[in-house]
Write a structure and sequence with these properties.
binds adenosine monophosphate; 57% helix; alpha/beta
Amino acid sequence: MVRLIFLGPPGAGKGTQADLLAHSLSIPHISTGEILRNAVAHKTDLGLKAQAYMDAGELVPDQLILDMVRDRLTQSDAKPGWILDGFPRNVSQAEFLDALLGEINQSYDCVINLDVPDEVLVLRLLSRGRKDDSEDVIRNRLEVYRSQTAPLIGLYNDRSQLVSVNGSQPIESVTQELKTIVQSR
Ligand code: AMP
């Protein structure tokens, strides 16, 4: 049973690595950003409410995110494990996650912090070409990460739940390191 939380700035490679690792472990890769982009594409109620925040590089309000995460984590395919990518994104989401996992009798193995310097992040994001990857929006997403998400590094570190990985290595090296971490737990 493997349950992991992927933390790290936009462009750190969370999505890529979570996808590879989830695939090799046969557990779902749960990306809140991906769920939201899907909702936007299908113009669901959630998508319509979330779109402006996403386009601006702001966090979508917790009230829209929390039910979505509860629904996803309680689906049957998430019973054998999961990798959470992009959630929690602030301290109140981290508190919600702890409460939710307590309720459904689950815990996670550790929080993986993918560490990548800012210069590398901006280059990666600019070359990705997603709708929210324009230069202004990138700058805002990094700012939002620093102010709202980065405090989680300290929070999980204080609880000895944090494992940092150098995310500026080649993709295969990061994947290998992650597999070693999983095997050692
Ligand atoms: P990501 O794919 O994780 O980079 O997320 C893309 C965008 O979706 C973010 O810039 C936010 O607008 C929104 N988003 C994703 N996850 C969350 C979350 N946990 N809380 C709030 N907004 C989120």
